[in-house]
Task: structure prediction
Amino acid sequence: MSGRFKPAVKTYTRPVTGGWWKENPFYIWYTLRELTAVGVFLYGVVLVTGVVSLGIGENAYNAWRAALTTWTSLIFHLILFALLVYHSYTWFKVMPKTTPQIPIAPQTIVRTGVAVTTALSLVIVAVLFGVTR
Amino acid sequence: MTAETNTRTIEIDVLRYDPDTEAPPRYQTYKVPFQHDTSVLQGLQYIKDNLDGTLTFRWSCRMAICGSCGTMINGIPQLSCHTFLRDYWPKKLRIDPLEHFPIIKDLAIDQTDFLNKLDSVKPYLIPKQEKPISEGAYLQTPKQMEQYYNYSQCINCLLCYAACPQYGLTPTFTGPAALALLHRYNADSRDVGWSARSDVLNSEDGVWRCTLVGYCSEVCPKNVDPAHAINQNKVNSTLDYFGVLKLLSTVGLGK
Amino acid sequence: MKRANDPIFWSSFGAGGMLSALLGPVLIFITGIAVPFGFILPKSTLSYANALAFAQNPIGKLFLFAVILLFLLHGAHRLLHSLHDFAIHGGPREKLWFYGVPLTLTFVALVELLLVGF
Result:
């Protein structure tokens, strides 16, 4: 940035490579955290395909359902599940950095987020279990 | 002899760069004797005093308050006075100048960019009215001070800039310390300077360049937590963008 | 200094991130792991009749629309920034693709959601 301070006359500038994210475990975990977005995006696409097939008709929709019963789909969804669990956990882990100065410990925010997610998930599955019996 | 006074030797690779030559930087290895309480800074001083008087590095207080001695130690930004050789022995130590800054000589880097960025955030109180000393001191409650206290602890050591990959990728980024100090003044109850600083905060090189890597807060020796300063202002910047910042009254922002 | 337009995209990124943090795992579990294999929940949970009823319901429609829109926008925003992290330079054209694809896909889904009626 230009300003009232002038740079030194002769300096050596080290090049910044695109590989910085590999150099340090902290950066590696950050990169993994950010790449969970792939999972979020792909699941959105899965839902779009489901909705589109539903709109086309019963046969198309049942074909979509059948595709979900393959091994490929199961492995794919297990990976997505793992990605979204990590996304969820890291989302709450960074949440304290986004709040104003409040007298609540960061750990409390993280634990609350994880607890609410877990509880909500169990409730949804339980309700679905109940209405489909 | 106790373990504390036992003298051991550690090998240190230090990056050397001489601006008076055309040669690129290269590592030079030194064997440094140390005891239990020898800091990396003392190791560097031993090298300069006994092995190689040409080695250049910055230091002053020796107690993690002046911010002069920031270096990369085994690739991690640290204060050399605050880091101990005993924690690396028997492995080798590698000392580089702070990442993301141009090298002037050996371990001394050019801080010009940071100094200009610091200027740009107007790091001083902008009160509603000038208050002469005869009118007495500003009063502030402990709760008001909590809003900005940790951000005021910055010693400008630049470890956070070395840690920040976004600063490395985009050197026009205002950066962690400058933005933390920007927030320090905005959050101070004696200050009404939000609009004076909002151009910097709201710009693409303000808070929006940050992707919450969070390493800045991790390496900060004074627990300033610049990541928190920047990311809580993403909300403020968004409210400002949609013209509703005045709704935010908890820290009296939007003035 | 150039004022950033990031707040717009950051808002949808934030909403999508929160929604996917709260509901992402359980939705994937239900639709991708449990129901297709009759594990805990019966296969009939996602029958054509059930799915149609859900999509025809105004709340069901809104839910599907919100999840699709916000999950896609969240993912796109973050992946666009990841490009930058890997020193791949993205300009207005990349932005157009990264936000355009989610918006297009959501539009397609919206059309289908309306076509199934109420």
